[in-house]
């Protein structure tokens, strides 16, 4: 089980690192936009991302 968790974490790190590696300028602009976003919108986006991830995991099984 821990192997799967570490693999998933590794994939997250790879995917998260792609944008700053490929386009650092756009990444900074995106981070500035996110920083200016209100808490409610960020929480909603986080909830949607978690639900999408759970749905994807269920669909894969």
TrEMBL record:
Keyword Membrane on entry: yes
Membrane spanning residue stretches: 6-22, 42-60
Name listed for the protein in its UniProt record: DUF2065 domain-containing protein
Domain of life: Bacteria
Organism this protein belongs to: Abyssibacter profundi
InterPro entries cross-referenced by the UniProt entry: DUF2065 (IPR019201)
Keywords, sorted A to Z: Membrane, Transmembrane, Transmembrane helix
């Amino acid at each position: 089980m821990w192997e799967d968790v570490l693999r998933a974490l590794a994939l997250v790190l790879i995917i998260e690192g792609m944008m700053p590696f490929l386009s650092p300028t756009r990444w900074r602009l995106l981070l500035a936009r996110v920083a200016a976003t209100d808490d409610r919108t960020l929480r909603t986006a986080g909830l949607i991302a978690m639900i999408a991830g759970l749905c994807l995991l269920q669909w894969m099984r």
